[in-house]
Amino acid sequence: MTRQILIINFEEIYLKGKNQKIFIKQLIRNLKRKLKPFSEFIKFEKSHGGSFFIEIIKEIPRDFLYHIIEILKKTPGITGIYIADVAGITLEEIISASLQHIKNYQEEFDSFAVIAKRINKSVDFSSLDIGREVGSAIHDTFQKRVDLTHPDLKLYIKVRGKYTIIYSKIIPGIGGLPVGTSGKAIAMLSGGIDSPVATFMAMNRGLHITAAHFHSVPKTSPESIEKVKKIVKQLTDFQGEIKLYLIPVLKIQQAIAQNTDSRLRLILLRRIMLKIGERIAAEQKAKALITGDSLGQVASQTLENMRATEEGIKNIIIRPLVALDKKFIIKKAREIGTYEISILPHDDACSLFTPKSPETKADLKYTNEQYAKLNEYNLIEDALQQMETVIIS
Ligand code: ATP
Ligand code: MG
C-alpha cells in the first residue's frame, strides 16, 4: 500500500495569532467526533504552520477515504485538503513516488512546476536537485512542460524527518471557523428555504447550533415535522449531532386569533416564538437566536416589523440573510443540500395563519398593546410543557 496523509489547511484560523491553539483544538475535537466511524484508519498529527495532518495508518477502502474527504470538505474551519502520498527520503524514492502521484492527474494539466523543500537538511541532495530531477522525470514520462510562473499544476515535495510528502491538487473546503469557537446559538428553523441557510451560515462562523421548530400539529400534517428533521439531518453534515426542539404553537395561534388585531398575527406569533427561543437559549447556555429574515423579501420583513417582532428580547438576534438576495440564498441552499427538502410541499405553522392583509409597517406601541392582550406567561409555560426534543445525528 502506498502510504497517504491528508493535509488539512485552515487559513483563517492561522490568522488568529495566539488564539490559534484554541481554534485548532476545537477543530480537531469536532473532526474526531465526525470521523469516529473511521477512527481505526486514521491518526491526527499536531499542526505544522497553517495546516495539520491526518495520517492514514492502515489499508483503507477507497470509498471510506472518499467519505472522509466528503466530511472534511463540509467541516467549518477547513479551507482546503490535500491528499498527499508518502515516500522515503532517497532521491530515487521521491522520483518514483512523484511519477506515481502525477499519473492520477495526468489528464488535468499541460504545464507544471515542482516546489520542493527540505525540512530534513541531512539528506545529500538539495531542493534544487529535487526540482530538477523530478521535473525532468515528469517531462520525459508524461511529455509535460515545465512552467515556473503560471503552471497548471504545482507539485509540492517536502522532505521531512523520515519521510517525504508529495501533493498537488487542493480540494477546497468551506472555510469559516470551527463549530463551537464562537459559542452557542438557537436557530429558529422553519421548513422554508431561508432559515436552513441562515443556520448553516451561523455554524460556519463558529456557532454551535441547537434548532427550534414551531409546529401546529394536528392542524398541520405530521409530515411538516419530518421535513424539518430531514433539514436538520442535512445540517449535521456540517456540525455533527444537532439537538432539535419541537414546540407546539396551535394554542398560541388560537389565542392570538381570538384576542388580537388580525393584521398583527404573524408579528405577535414570531415574538412569542423568539421569547420561547430565549427560554431554550437560557437552558442551553446559548447567547444568540438565529433567524432567516431577509430585509424586504416578503412584505412582512420590513424594518418596522422586525423591530416590533424583537421587542423585549434580550438575546442577540442574528439574521445572517438580512442583506442577501433571494437568488444568492437559493444558490447557497442548493450547495448545502437543503433546497430540495425545503421546496417539498408542506403546510407550515404560519401559512395557515396568515391574515388576508398583514401589517407591513407595524407600529411598535400598537403592537405592544395587542401583545399585552395575550396571557404571555401561561401560553409560554404551556408550550414549554408540551415541547419535545430529538437528537439528530
Ligand atoms: P423561511 O424560508 O426560513 O421559512 P421565510 O422567508 O418564510 O423564512 P418568515 O416566514 O417571515 O420568513 O419567517 C422568518 C423567520 O422566522 C424564519 O426564517 C425562521 O427563522 C423563523 N420562523 C418562521 N416560522 C418558524 C417556525 N415554524 N419555526 C421556527 N422558526 C420559524
Ligand atoms: Mg417560512
Characterization of this structure:
There is one protein chain. This protein is an alpha/beta fold and 393 residues long. It folds into two domains: 4-172, 2-Layer Sandwich (VC0802-like), CATH 3.30.2130; 183-392, HUPs (Rossmann fold), CATH 3.40.50. Helices cover 40% and strands 21% of the residues. It has 14 helices and 15 strands. The protein has helices at 11-14, 20-34, 62-73, 91-103, 127-142, 194-203, 223-239, 250-259, 265-284, 303-310, 326-336, 339-342, 364-371, 376-386, and strands at 4-9, 42-48, 51-56, 80-87, 111-118, 145-146, 153-159, 164-167, 170-172, 183-188, 207-215, 242-248, 288-290, 316-318, 388-392. Strands 1, 2, 3, 4, 5, 6, 7, 8 and 9 form a nine-stranded mixed sheet that branches. Strand 13, helix 10 and strand 14 (316-318) form a beta-alpha-beta unit. Helix 4 crosses helix 5 (127-142) and helix 8 (250-259) runs antiparallel to helix 9. The model has no long low-confidence stretch (mean pLDDT 92). Magnesium ion binds at residues 190, 192, 348.
State the gist of this model.
The chain has about 400 residues and is of the alpha/beta class. The chain is built from 14 helices and 15 strands.
The Cα radius of gyration reads: 27 Å
Count of spatially separate domains: 2
Number of strands: 15
**Count of separate DSSP helical elements:** 14
